[in-house]
Amino acid sequence: MNGMADTSKWTECMSVVRDILSPEQYRIWFEPIKAVSLEGMDLTIEVPSEFFREYIEEHFIDLLGRTLKRVIGPQVRLIYNVRVTKDSTVTYPANGKKDLRNPEVPIPAEQVISSISDPYVIPGLQRLNIDPNLNPIYTFDNFIQGSCNILARAAGLQIAEKPGNTSFNPLFVFGGPGLGKTHLAQAIGIAVKDRHPEQVVLYVTANQFVSQFIDAVTVKNKLNDFIHYYQSIDTLIIDDIHEFAEKKGSQNALFQIFNHLHQLGKQLILTSDRSPVELQGLETRLLSRFKWGLTTELTVPDYETRISILESKSFREGITLPAEVIDFLAQKVTGNVRELEGALVSLMANATLTHKKISLSLAEELIGKIVHVPKNDISITRIKKTVCSYFNITDEILLSNTRKREVVQARQIAMYLSRSLTSTSLDSIGAQIGGKNHATVLYACNTVCDLMDTDKSFRQYLSDIERILKTDTTL
């Protein structure tokens, strides 16, 4: 095969490769290759992209090398031409050849030149003028900070200032559904666009990425343009990375894109419903890269954060909620942010449609229809009511600063039961029972434990109140 005319040796090689690979593998990875020339032992082939060459090198070079040696000769050397446009290519210089006699010698990546002609336009997006696919509602102003997200939020703000130039690359955010992963990821993207308008930012879900990959490979056969499209992004946000599980082709494409962007100092932000060590069905090489930067978890918001979320949401909706309604919702809806905001929206909708004023009684009437509330659900509000009823004192007296022994003990019992029967923090318990700090709550709990061991009457008080809380749902 000297020159372009004789391709019989390459055709013979491909007949061997075709018999070994699956029809789909051969169609995707070998049919697009063109034999250019065979001069002596130097075989030159043309491939459609740098990504294509890298994939061949990683997955098929051993098979291709053995076949070429058998058909052409043991001294054969393979040279790649990477197609630049429809009418021109770039050939590796002599020191960039892949010597099949020494397959461990890599081809210098800096000698590769590649570009895109007639770029593949992913549905809904445009080359050079890319719609970042960001929801303007998901800003940092609307992302309430709490102990559940303080590290992730702080890292996100630093990334927004210097995308790609912090140690948080990639930023891997994980947590359960409805805890704000998408909100935070998009907030970073919005902040990057605001502070760096020249940056190309893109938010995409894993399922969208996979769908576009399949379209590029099996429908339009434009995998080259697909890869280069994503490699042109400055800040790439991929949501629900766990959806890549068992999707080998998409994982390989993501691996190539990740490496390219990371090496160029571009920012990557990934979200998942579980940590990297818990992800199943993803290649080890991908998982190891996910751990290169910062991995941070979003957890269930505590009482104070839930209060802040409700206040912020009601303010954005232009309504003022009674404090007792906010407290009630924060006590009852403890699952995630999405549930909490949904409960508030449902309450506002019911009030509007029925022409009722938003009140505690309306919230109590609707809460069971909005979220699942166990019949024996115990909240701090219910504990306070039960303690007051048992000792025949008012809520105002319980929360006052009086040092009367019976009131102090009632308050300490309320604090103790709030700690043992709810998941509320010490700070939150103190804030709701007399405006005390966590040290006071901890002292109260220790005092109750001591009195239970030494005072039979006090032990009976506590037993009675706990029994009422667990059996009487009317309070």
* Mean pLDDT level: 81
Q: Please give the radius of gyration in angstroms.
A: 32 Å
Q: What is the rounded distance between the termini?
A: 92 Å
Total strand segments: 10
Just give the CATH class of the largest domain: Alpha Beta
Structural write-up:
The chain is α/β, with parallel strands linked by helices. The protein folds into 4 domains: 8-107, DnaA, N-terminal domain (GMP Synthetase, Chain A, domain 3, 2-Layer Sandwich); 150-297, 3-Layer(aba) Sandwich (Rossmann fold); 303-370, Helicase, Ruva Protein, domain 3; 380-471, DnaA protein, C-terminal DNA-binding domain (Chromosomal Replication Initiator Protein Dnaa, Chain: A, Orthogonal Bundle). It has helices at 8-20, 23-29, 50-59, 61-71, 150-161, 181-195, 206-219, 223-231, 248-263, 284-290, 303-316, 323-332, 337-354, 360-370, 380-391, 395-398, 405-421, 426-432, 438-454, 456-471, and strands at residues 34-39, 42-47, 77-83, 89-91, 98-99, 171-174, 201-205, 235-239, 267-272, 294-297. Strands 1, 2, 3, 4 and 5 form a 5-stranded mixed beta sheet that branches. The protein has a 5-stranded parallel beta sheet with strand order 7-8-9-6-10, with helices on both faces. The longest helix is centred in the last third of the chain and has 18 residues, at 337-354. Residues 1-5 and 85-127 have low confidence and may be disordered.
